[in-house]
Write a structure and sequence with these properties.
- This protein has helices spanning 58-68, 77-102, 108-114; strands at 20-25, 33-38, 44-49.
- It has 116 residues and is of the alpha+beta class.
- It has two domains: 9-51; 53-103, no CATH class.
- A three-stranded antiparallel sheet has the order 1-2-3, with no helix packed on it.
- The radius of gyration is 17 Å and the shape is globular.
- The N and C termini lie close together (12 Å).
- Bound molecules: zinc ion.
- Residues 12, 14-15, 17, 38, 40-41, 43 line the site of zinc ion.
Length: 116
């Protein structure tokens, strides 16, 4: 079966709003979690468990990732960081373009079941 990448904005299951609060929850020794709440009606929307987090400062995020993986930050770091940053912005732009062009209408649960 051919897998096709899909993108969508999270929608509130109660009121269909796309306005969300993100509550970031960090506990030592555990994956960080983000609880998503509808800004319009206050409904619980979803919990994301993060394998990796990339902020608006991809250089810092990349160095943290390397520390987590116990990799040394040697001479190749600058080039690798630049590639990391380029891929981040390219992915971000592509996902936004996909949503604007043909936003996925099925639920995130449906999309995740499809790729299992
Ligand atoms: Zn809502």
């Amino acid at each position: 079966m051919t897998q096709i990448e899909r993108s969508k904005r999270e929608h509130c299951p109660q009121c269909d709003s796309i306005q969300m609060y993100n509550y970031v929850h960090v506990v030592p020794g555990r994956d960080a979690e983000v609880f998503i709440e509808c800004l319009e009606c206050g409904a619980f929307v979803a919990r994301y468990t993060l394998r990796a987090y990339t902020s608006e400062d991809p250089y810092r995020s990349y160095l943290r990732l390397m520390r987590q993986r116990h990799m040394s930050s040697g001479a190749a770091t600058r080039k690798a960081v630049e590639q990391f940053r380029t891929e981040l912005w390219n992915d971000y732009r592509r996902v936004k373009e996909m949503v604007q062009a043909a936003e996925e209408s099925r639920s995130v649960e449906d999309l995740l079941e499809e790729i299992e």
